[in-house]
């Protein structure tokens, strides 16, 4: 009786999970078909959502598994809802765990379809299992020269812009809600904090979608850096913003009005949580100073575990795991990555790429499914129209004024085309969904969830699908550039690459003025942090003042001495394309000439080759490719029949 | 009130999970130290267990988190224990899900330490999440020539041997239990079916441990094949055996005695479930006929999802997921692997290797932890001594008589040294643990769990740690062999290797007689299945009778024609080292001369080099290396300074 029931349950669970796996498989097959045929009008995430919607419709109308009759309501005389419950059924004790509160109406209404109830996941799954790999991957693949170049603008968009957008949307929605109350369209409570929370939730633009779409198109590198950097960081901002709004919200207290003190308190919580998560992420990222180069499997496993434990540690400390994992990813890409063996660099990259791909497609499928299978939808046309308008205006109030202000400081202006593109490409995705599904207990939250879902659908299908057209209409892709690359092939893995574009000289002088903060940090990083934390860079004994000699000697790893005469690829990653920086140590000299082209002379010969602008663009516009191309890199096209003289330990990709 | 409670819970959960991650990290770091210093007296799995035990002691005596006061027992007047419960707490409805039954004694006794309760996982986690990757990896890395050579013996040990062992142990334990009842040492019921179940549980020897230990030692290839093959397959047998015993057990009925009809019925269930799982696994394995070679990420993701969906599908159909996943792995290694792009071959291999490593170490850590944190241990000295004796005798009754019978048919006898080694290396590990923790509700099951845990500890620490000594004492490692290898380097990835050992000629003639069944299958597989299911092998148009021409043409993939003049590495994997098989098609001829050494002549030149026996041994004795070495394979030692003329698309490992 009991065992067979448990077994039936288990079988049912397997079947439910199988639905999702099949959905993913179907999506992958269709993506392949699309890539094969070069369809571009619909993105793969949009596709996953369509399949999700279809399966949702089938589940809602096609399959009907009646709810177990024994799930009758118990009217127990308890005055609390403990997380664990022991029930005494005629002498035998059964343990029950709390799943959540159910609104009284839901029980009588739709709740009788067992299947729909089963395919509804615990919202925490999204936050604790599916988001971390996505966010980590974003951080891990963020290590782009162009990201660091546009650091200031990205930070402005991500922090200031998200906060502006959050408040604009919050205020507009508060007006909308007031109006609805007047018209009599609102059936429940909707406080100002709810409006602000809604603003925080829908302010997070999605790095996943941006990455996926722009990765395939050959888009301007600066636009890509701005969009991707902003969307990665504003996710973190939105998470912390929403959780500080929620934590401010006094429970049981109906005093949900605007107060300066409360806002300041929220701001304090925001800063505390954000900086805590940031510090934790960076600390664990730096700590993962692996020396296990000889055992790739151990190395990869350790890398994976450290990333995960960052997340858990942050959550256990009451910080935000997602933010910690983001900065852990960035730090690991910057420091730890250099300590890994070439094989582990490949492995970790591929592993996180796969996890990211699966998690991303799962979330988007689930979103499609949730449109029909989620049981507490509250479709309110007026709220939805208001929200679309507010989101549009909020994004506009983020991009245009900030761009205007930033352009005052930048000599390399963000053109109006760029601004329109950023406006258009502010897709909402996985993070927005995860934030909004986290709590759907009250009427207000349910309405917010439904509206958020529609916003995500609209932006992914319409904006995501139309990006290609939009890009070609505003002509941002700079395919006509002619780029020369000098590839230095020094015996033991040195690849130096650079890019020069039309506005090269103008841009260079801009940097000279605006990036002084960055320059200071770069020098500190290059001379002290990198030598301490990785085996690359100049030994500390060279860079530190002579008085610190003994300290320097004890902090420098033996390998750093071996590498002394090697210029590591990643160092040149950060070199600004300026004429005034010239690094020289050991017997290698890297100098940058006036046209922004690096020339490199080392003990081994150098090769110079011209490659097409398209090749370079593709390379630069995709963040995670860079991680691949870190061993000996050959950018020059070559015949298979003419194998080069290269150390076979290093792998080449072309 | 409510939200903060949930948050506290979440924080606590994160901290608990963090303990396990830290345990794993610690294990990895120590493993690295051990490998670095070349310690061999303790295996890494044993190490993981030791750390688990230490943390368990700390949790039990050092940390005391009192149980939440609100978890008081509710005495509800219900007459069932439904999987879902709706509780009406003063007008608000809360949903609770059933976690399991708790024995009345446990509630008052130890149950007050919340921490211990939290680190106890749902047993289903082991079966549904941790075991599948381990088992799949075992199947995926099983593709060894030596496995197929010893197929008959392996099947005999795995099927017949496990059943013998199960019944011997069951009968001995039944005697032991009877005795205990007489002496008054038994406090609860212990039926004959419980004894049989115990036999089935502890009969499963562990491929994980065998693989891990023998991988590093340079052991005789045939011994390795016998041990590894047996332990992989007997896991599957034990799972099905135990579940058919459980399904036979009539609930509520105390008539647990031996009946011929019941045994026959169990046998029927066994056959049904096993063949169902087998068919399902092979079917999905074959179905994964990927053609997505151009998109490695999609390919890897699809491969991963198909393996997982095999497991879920089997569970949903009421078969055994673990068995299905095993055969899915074997089939995919044999067919699908050839269709993958070289990059995906690496990726999938590395992915499953990592998953396997993490899951394995997690299980062993958890085992150590469970020794102290599991709340319902029943230590019964008499039962434990009886069980150790029974396990020893059961293993002996499996190995020695079967070896004797097999030796009647084999000309290449299994020497007594081999037999002692197989006896000694029958470690119990993850599978035994997962099977025994699956149900610990009754007194008998709790006693079985405790005893099983001790058996696992003993075998892993004593037998696992002593294997090196044992191996050197019975001198099975054949380091003195001199082996010549001819490596054929044909323009597009052909590597043929073979091994010849002391008893070469004797062994070859053995095969000629005993492996006729295998030969028929091999020919069928080579001529029909491989061409249909992969792009390798001769086109069907060549191998099929002329009358089936149109059918053959439509079943042959275009790539197979391109590959026509290539001899794929894996085909030669299965070629028996006999003088009478000579394959010839296209312009390549591979013939085997009398001394068992392949000579190969192709359009490109051939190279012959002598390599040390140690190198070859190491290569042959590790199953999963083979998966790596499938591109162009170079077995000859070479200087880095002299790069060979090889197509750079293919990767080399040395």
UniProtKB/TrEMBL annotation, chains A, B:
InterPro entries: Cation/H_exchanger_CPA1 (IPR018422), Cation/H_exchanger_TM (IPR006153), NaH_exchanger (IPR004709), NHE-6/7/9 (IPR002090). It is found in: Cell membrane; Recycling endosome membrane. The keyword Isomerase does not apply. Residues 27-471 form the Cation/H+ exchanger transmembrane domain. One of its GO terms (cellular component) is plasma membrane. One of its GO terms (biological process) is regulation of intracellular pH. Keywords: Antiport, Cell membrane, Endosome, Ion transport, Membrane, Sodium, Sodium transport, Transmembrane, Transmembrane helix, Transport. The chain crosses the membrane at residues 17-34, 46-64, 125-142, 154-175, 190-214, 267-289, 301-334, 354-374, 381-400, 449-471. Signal peptide: none annotated. It is a multi-pass membrane protein. GO terms for molecular function: potassium:proton antiporter activity; sodium:proton antiporter activity. Belongs to the monovalent cation:proton antiporter 1 (CPA1) transporter (TC 2.A.36) family. NCBIfam families: b_cpa1. This is Sodium/hydrogen exchanger. It comes from Esox lucius.
């Amino acid at each position: 009786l009991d065992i067979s029931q448990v077994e039936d349950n288990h079988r049912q669970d397997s079947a439910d999970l199988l639905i999702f796996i099949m959905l993913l498989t179907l999506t992958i097959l269709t993506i392949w078909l699309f890539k094969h045929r070069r369809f571009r009008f619909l993105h793969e995430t949009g596709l996953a959502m369509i399949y999700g919607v279809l399966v949702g419709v089938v589940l809602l109308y096609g399959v009907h598994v009646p709810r177990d009759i024994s799930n009758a309501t118990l009217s127990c005389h308890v005055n609390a809802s403990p997380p664990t419950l022991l029930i005494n059924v005629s002498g035998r004790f059964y343990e029950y765990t709390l799943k959540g509160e159910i609104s009284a109406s839901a029980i009588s209404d739709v709740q009788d379809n067992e299947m729909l109830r089963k395919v509804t996941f615990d919202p925490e799954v999204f936050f604790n299992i599916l988001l971390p790999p996505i966010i980590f991957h974003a951080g891990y693949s963020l290590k782009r020269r162009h990201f660091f170049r546009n650091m200031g603008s990205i930070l402005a968009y991500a922090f200031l812009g998200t906060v502006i957008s959050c408040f604009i949307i919050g205020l507009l929605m508060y007006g909308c809600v007031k109006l609805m109350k007047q018209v009599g369209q609102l059936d429940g409570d909707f406080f100002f904090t709810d409006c602000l929370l809604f603003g925080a939730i829908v302010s997070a633009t999605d790095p996943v979608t941006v990455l996926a779409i722009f990765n395939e198109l050959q888009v301007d590198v600066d636009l890509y850096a701005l969009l991707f950097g902003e969307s990665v960081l504003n996710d973190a901002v939105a998470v912390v913003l929403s959780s500080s709004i929620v934590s401010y919200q006094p429970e049981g207290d109906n005093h949900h009005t605007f107060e300066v003190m409360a806002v300041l308190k929220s701001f304090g919580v925001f800063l505390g949580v954000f900086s805590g998560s940031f510090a934790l992420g960076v600390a664990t990222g730096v700590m993962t100073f692996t020396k296990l180069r000889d055992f790739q499997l151990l190395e990869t496993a350790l890398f994976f575990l450290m990333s995960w434990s960052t997340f858990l540690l942050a959550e256990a400390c009451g910080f935000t795991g997602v933010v910690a994992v983001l900065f852990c990813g960035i730090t690991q890409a910057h420091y730890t990555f250099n300590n890994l063996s070439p094989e582990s660099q490949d492995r970790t990259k591929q592993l996180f790429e796969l996890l990211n791909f699966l998690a991303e497609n799962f979330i988007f499928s689930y979103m499609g499914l949730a449109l029909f299978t989620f049981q507490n939808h509250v479709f309110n046309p007026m709220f939805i129209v208001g929200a679309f308008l507010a989101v549009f205006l909020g994004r506009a109030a983020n991009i245009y004024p900030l761009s205007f202000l930033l352009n005052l400081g930048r000599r390399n202006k963000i053109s109006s085309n760029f601004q329109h593109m950023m406006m258009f490409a502010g897709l909402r995705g996985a993070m927005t969904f995860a934030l909004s599904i986290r709590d759907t207990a009250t009427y207000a939250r349910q309405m917010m969830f439904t509206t958020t879902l529609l916003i995500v659908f609209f932006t992914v299908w319409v904006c995501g699908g139309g990006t290609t057209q939009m890009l070609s209409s505003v002509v941002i892709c700079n395919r006509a550039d002619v780029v020369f690359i000098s590839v230095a092939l020094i015996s033991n893995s040195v690849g130096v690459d650079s890019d020069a574009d039309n506005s090269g000289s103008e841009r260079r002088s801009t940097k000279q003025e605006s990036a002084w903060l960055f320059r200071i940090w770069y020098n500190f990083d290059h001379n002290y942090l990198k030598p301490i934390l990785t085996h690359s860079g100049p030994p500390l004994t060279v860079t530190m003042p002579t008085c610190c000699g003994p300290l320097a000697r004890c902090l420098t790893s033996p390998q750093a001495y071996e590498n002394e005469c090697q210029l590591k690829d990643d160092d040149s990653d950060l070199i600004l394309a300026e004429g005034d920086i010239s690094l020289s140590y050991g017997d290698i000299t890297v100098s940058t000439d006036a046209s922004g082209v690096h020339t490199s002379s080392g003990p081994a010969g150098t090769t110079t080759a011209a490659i097409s602008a398209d090749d370079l663009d593709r390379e630069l516009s995709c963040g995670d490719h860079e991680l691949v191309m870190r061993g000996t890199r050959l950018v020059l096209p070559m015949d298979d029949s003419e194998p080069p003289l290269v150390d076979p330990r290093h792998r080449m990709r072309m």
